[in-house]
Specification:
The complex is a heterotetramer, with one copy of chain A, one copy of chain B and two copies of chain C. By secondary structure, chain B is of the alpha/beta class. Chain B has helices at about 15-25, 65-75, 85-95, 150-160, 220-225; strands at about 1-5, 30-35, 45, 80-85, 100-105, 110-120, 135-140, 145-150, 165-170, 185-190, 195-200. Chain B is built from five helices and eleven strands, in the order βαββαβαββββαβββα. Chain C has two helices and three strands, in the order βαβαβ. The chains are: A alpha+beta, B alpha/beta, C alpha+beta. The structure holds adenosine-5'-diphosphate and magnesium ion (MG). Magnesium ion binds near residues 71, 112, 115 and 263 of chain A. Magnesium ion binds next to loops of chain A.
Chain lengths: ~725, ~230, ~80, ~80
């Protein structure tokens, strides 16, 4: 088949990229080869726009066993155990088919964990939708949530946390980022490598079909009305198959004869084979005729690019292929030897005795062009108006009871129970702090006193106003969440969702966002162990807000010290750690009540952030706290309500003069703040410690038996009526 | 006291059940592979929760034909204790060891939460450590837990003292609001006529440690222990 | 070879949660003239068999044993050569 | 009033996990002569409408918008008065 310009551009390759392929091969590529390069050199697989920036991120640290580069990062938690984690996006597939898009996202990220030899123990997700009221959002929300539930529940991995935001910028381009966390005996860690000439290459899992063809290239394309026609690119997941794959892979991970394992994710067989061979500094030959196939007459092109789900590629020591295949068969999975490791550094693909592709393995996985894209500060930033320019607050006649009810009814702030109740968050019997009980989930590690706290976070409105600070805040808040249950933040996995990087203004946002994450991760000593980049999140030319998402893992040495956010006992004393400032720009209050965005995002002082977190953690470890809850969207008023409602207690808050406007006192989203409560018995010791640490703090009130929330003379409401507004999200 | 826990392809509460009955309750336990044709010596067989065969077609409909199920049926017919939890309950219904069938939850969604159930009879191997009227707090997690049977079957279940647990509120009232899935008469758990086979939608193995929210599940396993 | 189409429906006396939900969704989208909607299964299969009556008895057996649950469901089928 | 029967099937190239699992189950039950089995939906509904062509266009619309997912499924229907 002749390679025409049209064919090249249909493969999303530029002419320069095509020339580079010709130089590598010393000839024209075959159609199959062209397809292979096109997917592996796509933005999604090659990171061609993001690589230079990602190299900026801190990736090493005391606890880090494996940073980016493998399928997932690995963090040492002692006792011969390690935690494995990663985030993955499935934005575009979910926009087209929300149920299957989200479900296969979950499936994909689980496979990244099992390839490491780890057992998946927790799932989290971060969701962004457009206007809550639009029927399309309802459709997407329902589909995505039931897709995550349908897949995660069936494979038996608890979905223990997440976040959901609604913002018009996601109307055409929702975000679905999923995170999976696994546990591993360090000695059983597996790498995605092919080594040892002559060693057999084994295909395992589900059959190969035409579904999801070209999904990787598809994921990097801008969404437009044309996408409707890209339909076959949507894949269907089979969670039952995945569950079998988990068990079989875990069994094989414990065998000494396993050399390497890699999931077939984006670009299926092509990416897994070339990456494994590339890492082993060798080559691989494959015989496609041996691949278990679902559809009749699959062409080599289709087989190399198919993104059928629930498939793995393995290399085992020669002579052990039957044993390996037997394990998969025992679990009812397909498995076959489809090739062998070669010394010649080539990926050679045969089909019916004919060589259909032969390319240097590393050229696919490592030699994609890298672009240093131009960046330019976006013009919109100059047009933003601070609220202080626009309106005056603190009008005497504002009824803040009404205001609070309205803020609580914002779907971004409201209870997410109707979402998480659809997820089996208990399977595994390790979830010690459940969804809705705290800012982070806490998973115990059976056989030890340890636990790991998990949170996923990111406020894209802040990032729109200031992507650098927004990126920092995402890290700071995720860490703060983990601290609020009593765990020490150890490591980050990030999901970087942005628009089209070829647009210099978008690239600037991306650059700033990454640099913000870098600075916060350095300051908080939480290296980035891996992540995902999703670019081209645009609909018809309009980009989403810059949306970096941070998954954070923290370690707790003794889970008996854990704390949740609900107030526990009447007469406990409530404190607010940190500084409250007049910061309503970018807040949910401003959005909901005044339909405005503002200009500045809240400030972040990483030094103070660290102090506040360390202080809170020490107080928890000294067992001086009854509750701890981080302040985020909705500020103090919302945090107080949440601690009241989860603890089924009231609160009486007396703050008095602060110099802040009433609105800011209640709803400012100043960072580095934590709401804690302390029993009368612990009061003296807690105050002594706070004084000693010299961090800003305020004693603001008491927990009460009476079920109402009172804040100065601004708010006095029964919890019941507040709760009604807060439960506005229905599925 | 020794439990045998069956692993079907897709079971996902098998390890939780194992941990619960062995590490927490201190009993012996062994896993049984669904393809086995022989049952060892057990005092109680657990069919665990999960999604056997993905719950494709109907929950439990395929697992019920696993080779080991013939043995389980024989064991049950011989008076052996068989406890089906969640998906295990669905398998028992499909295998006709218990009457009735499961429909999708009334609100169609999967639902995971802690619920209250009321004990109706204490003269069974599963409830002898409980008193009639005792309320337990135990989590549920299912998509198809909407129990259904026809009127005459219901009468027989009721007259035979086979309805062991029903959903209720914290005070023990069997209200519609307390019914999480639309089950007929709030039914949460039933046993066979001989009282040796129990199907239970809630997960007692998830309620054995206070750090997980409730220890009420222990009462069921304590009953089994004192029966054996 | 025989081609079979099997239709599995919930018995009339049994409430259909899924059908009710879809009916509700249609109503909220202004399709208010749907007094009744029920959802069942439609299974298409091939039976590699040469004799019609053997194919039919096998199909019936499969329907009763596994494809449907007679406590809550009815089944019906079309069987044709081809 | 019109009676409609809608048959929804997965597109040919789309994986049918349910069908595959059921086929596997039938095989292990010694029904080894089922080369193909796919599971779809069978929806029965009534449309309270007096005009056939209006009923039909409404049915089509509902099929495309709600009852089926055109990205992975095909639909077909029978419509009759009664
Ligand atoms: N935003 C990011 N931050 C840090 N590491 C990243 C990021 N994006 C990707 N990586 C790392 O790059 C490697 C390749 O990622 P990817 O191609 O997404 O893997 P997979 O194909 O397994 O999903 C992984 O090790 C991943 O953790
Ligand atoms: Mg991977």
């Amino acid at each position: 088949m002749e390679i025409t310009k049209d064919l090249i551009s249909a493969h999303n390759l530029t002419l320069e990229e095509y020339e580079k392929i010709k130089t590598i091969l010393g000839r024209e590529p075959s159609l199959t080869e062209l397809g292979m390069y096109s997917v592996l050199w796509s933005e999604h697989c090659s990171y061609k726009s993001s690589k230079p920036l990602l190299q900026e991120l801190p990736v090493v640290g005391e606890y880090i066993l494996e940073g980016p580069g493998e399928n997932a990062g690995v963090i040492d938690i002692g006792d011969g155990l390690a935690i494995v984690m990663k985030v993955e996006s499935h934005n575009h597939p979910s926009a087209i088919e929300p149920y299957e898009g989200a479900a296969t996202g979950v499936g994909g990220i689980i496979r990244d964990i099992i390839t490491m030899g780890a057992r998946p123990i927790a799932l989290l997700n971060s969701l962004r939708f457009g206007n809550y009221k639009s029927p399309r959002t309802q459709y997407l929300l329902n589909g995505v949530v039931s897709g995550i539930a349908g897949y995660g529940n069936c494979v038996g991995v608890p979905t223990v946390g997440g976040e959901t935001y609604f913002e018009d910028c996601y109307d055409g381009n929702p975000l679905v980022n999923v995170m999976c966390v696994g546990i591993l005996e360090t000695k059983n860690m597996v790498r995605a490598v092919a080594k040892g000439k002559g060693n057999p290459v084994i295909y395992a899992g589900s059959t190969t079909g035409r579904d999801g063809l070209g999904g990787a290239a598809f994921a990097s394309k801008e969404l437009n009305d044309q996408s409707e026609k890209d339909r076959p690119a949507v894949q269907v997941g089979d969670p039952f198959m995945e569950k079998l794959l988990i068990e079989a892979c875990l069994e094989i991970s414990q065998q000494d004869y396993l050399i390497g394992m890699q999931d077939m994710g984006a670009a299926g067989l092509t990416s897994s084979s070339s990456e494994m061979a590339g890492k082993g500094e060798g080559g691989m030959s494959l015989d496609l005729s041996a691949v278990p196939q679902r559809d009749k007459n699959l062409s080599p092109y289709e087989m190399m690019l198919s993104e059928s789900q629930e498939r793995m590629l393995l290399v085992v020591k020669s002579g052990y292929e039957d044993k390996a295949v037997e394990i998969f068969h025992k679990w009812g999975l397909k498995a076959a030897v489809i090739g062998s490791v070669e010394a010649n550094a080539l990926l050679t693909v045969k089909h019916k005795d004919e060589i259909v592709a032969e390319v240097p393995a590393k050229s696919l996985s490592n030699d994609a062009p890298v672009y240093n894209r131009p960046a330019k500060k976006p013009a919109y930033l100059d047009g933003l108006k601070s609220i202080s320019d626009a309106i005056t607050f603190g009008k005497a006649n504002t009824d803040f009871n009404e205001t609070l009810l309205k803020v609580l009814s914002s779907p971004t702030i409201g209870s997410k129970k109707s979402i998480y109740q659809q997820y089996d968050y208990m399977v595994g019997t390790n979830t010690v702090v459940l969804p809705g009980q705290s800012d982070a989930a806490l998973m115990r590690i059976k056989g030890t006193q340890k636990g790991i706290a998990l949170s996923i976070d990111g406020n894209s409105r802040y990032c729109y106003l200031n992507p650098f600070t927004g990126g920092q805040i995402a890290v700071a808040e995720a860490a703060r969440n983990v601290v609020c249950v009593g765990a020490k933040p150890l490591a980050v996995t990030d999901g970087l969702n942005f628009g089209n990087p070829e647009n210099p203004e978008v690239f600037w946002q991306f650059q700033q966002g990454v640099m913000g994450i870098k600075s916060a991760c350095e300051a908080l000593e939480t290296p980035v162990v891996g992540g995902n980049v999703s670019l081209y999140n645009e609909t018809n030319g309009t980009a989403i807000y810059p949306s970096p998402i941070i998954g954070m893992m923290g370690l707790m040495e003794d889970i008996d010290h854990r704390v949740t956010m609900g107030f526990k006992n009447a007469d406990d004393v409530i404190f607010l750690l940190g500084d409250s400032l007049e910061e309503l720009d970018g807040s949910e209050y401003l959005k909901v009540i005044h339909d405005m965005m503002g200009k500045e995002c809240p400030r972040l002082d990483l030094g103070l952030e660290k102090e506040v977190q360390e202080t809170c953690l020490s107080l928890i470890n000294k067992r001086l706290l009854s509750s701890a809850h981080d302040l985020s969207e909705g500020g103090l008023a919302v945090a107080l309500f949440e601690s009241c409602i989860t603890g089924d207690k009231g609160a009486n808050i007396v703050i008095g003069a602060t110099g802040l406007s009433d609105a800011a006192l209640l709803f400012s989203e100043s960072q580095s703040r934590i709401l804690i409560s302390v029993s009368p018995e612990s009061l003296y010791e807690a105050i002594t410690y706070l004084e000693y640490k010299e961090i800003p703090y305020q004693q603001i009130g008491m927990v009460t038996k009476g079920k109402s929330l009172k804040i100065d003379d601004l708010i006095d409401q029964p919890l019941e009526s507040l709760e009604k507004s807060w439960k506005s999200l229905v599925l | 006291m020794k439990y045998g826990i069956v692993i079907f392809p897709g079971s996902n509460c098998d390890q939780d059940s194992f941990y619960g009955v062995s590490s927490v309750m201190g009993a012996e336990a062994e896993m049984i592979w669904h393809k086995d044709h022989h049952l060892g010596q057990y005092d109680c067989i657990i069919l665990p929760g999960g999604f056997s065969y993905g719950d494709y077609l109907r929950a439990g409909s395929i697992a019920r034909y696993s080779p080991i199920m013939q043995e389980v049926v024989a064991f049950a017919n011989g008076g052996g204790l068989v406890l089906g939890i969640c998906n295990g309950f669905q398998v028992l219904l499909e295998a006709k060891l218990l009457p009735g069938a499961m429909l999708q939850n009334k609100h169609v969604h999967f639902i995971c939460k802690s619920v209250y159930i009321k004990t109706h009879h204490s003269n069974t191997p599963y409830t002898n450590a409980l008193k009639e009227g005792d309320i337990l707090e135990i989590p549920i997690a299912h998509m198809e837990g909407n129990y259904y049977c026809d009127n005459s079957t219901y009468q027989r279940l009721k007259d035979g003292g086979q309805i062991l647990f029903s959903y209720c509120d914290a005070k023990g009232n069997s209200t519609d609001e307390a019914n999480p899935n639309g089950s007929l008469r709030n039914i949460a758990g039933i046993c066979n006529e001989k009282k040796n086979v129990l199907g239970l939608m809630p997960h007692p193995e998830r309620a054995l440690e206070s750090m997980l929210g409730s220890e009420d599940g222990k009462r069921i396993f304590e009953s089994i222990r004192s029966h054996c | 070879m025989y081609q079979a189409k099997v239709y599995i429906t919930l018995k009339d006396s049994i409430l259909d949660p899924q059908g009710t939900a879809v009916k509700g969704a249609l109503e909220s989208l202004k399709y208010q003239n749907i007094p009744e909607l029920r959802i069942g299964k439609y299974i298409q299969l091939q039976i590699d068999e040469t004799d019609l009556s053997r194919a039919e008895s096998q199909l019936k057996e499969m329907c009763e044993k596994i494809l449907s649950n007679p406590i809550i469901e009815n089944y019906r089928y079309d069987l044709s050569e081809g």
